[in-house]
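Customer ticket, subject: "Can you confirm the structure for Cephalosporin hydroxylase?"

Message body: Hello, I'm evaluating your service for our small team and ran a test protein. I'd like someone to confirm that this is what the system normally returns, since I don't have a reference to compare against.
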Amino acid sequence: MTTDDRRQFDEDQRRYASAVGADSELQADALSVLERSDRHGWSYTWSWLGLPVIQVPEDIVTMQQIVWETRPEVVIETGVARGGSLLLYASILDMVGEGKVIGIDIDIRAHNRDSVERHPLAHRVSLIEGSSIDPNVVAQVREELAGCKRVMV
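Agent reply: Thanks for trying us out. I re-ran your input and got the following:
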C-alpha cells in the first residue's frame, strides 16, 4: 500500500522555493541569464495553443499555477500582443469550467484579433481596443465585471 505524500510534497516545494529565493548568488546568476537571453529575444520564442505568447517559460508556468489555484472568474490582460497569453488563461479557465479573459490593447491588429476570435477558446475571451486608463474602456470593463468576486489583473 502506498501513502498519499502530497502534503509532504507541497511542504517540500515551499521549502525549495524559499531556499531558491534566499540564495543571493543563484538570484544574481538567474538575473544574468535572463538579461542575456533577453538580448536574443528569448521571450519571443514561445507559443501557447498555436499563438505566440511573449513570456519566458518560468512566467508561463507561474501564471498557470496562480490561475489554477485562485480560479478567478475573470482575468484582465492589458497588452494583447499576439494573443498567446489570453489563450493561456482561457485554457486554464476552460479546464476549471468557468471564467473569461478580457484583453485590452490600444492597437489590436486585425490578424491578431482574427487569430484569437477564430480559436476554439474564443468563447472565453473578450477583446477591447483602447487604452486601459480611458474612462470609456474602464466603464466597459466594469460592466463586464458586474457580479464578479474574483478578478485577476
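A couple of notes from the result: Residues 6-40 form one domain. The first helix runs from residue 6 to 22. Feel free to reply with more questions.
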